[in-house]
Amino acid sequence: FEARSAGSVPGREPHSVVIDALREDDIDATDHVPQKLNDELVRWADVVVATCDDACPVVPGKRYINWQLPDPAVMPIGEVRALRNDIRKRVEALVTELEEQ
To answer: How far apart are alpha carbons 66 and 3 in whole angstroms?
Structure first.
């Protein structure tokens, strides 16, 4: 599986608190460059995991999953860790589901 990340209103750089929380799990996201979600990225994906409301472009025939996640930019590190762990569980469940298809 390959994942890409994009946002409806991306910042210029990843939030430092997110970088710190990911580093604790040996994930180096310091080189991540936020990018704007566009039709091309949506067409590339087999499954679009949206964390936004109605701001995501919709391409007919794509599978969309909405996780309704809070913005970690305004969270203290403890809450970002909990969010990171929640996302990890969701991704693991999605991978298992996709492997069974």
So the answer is: 16
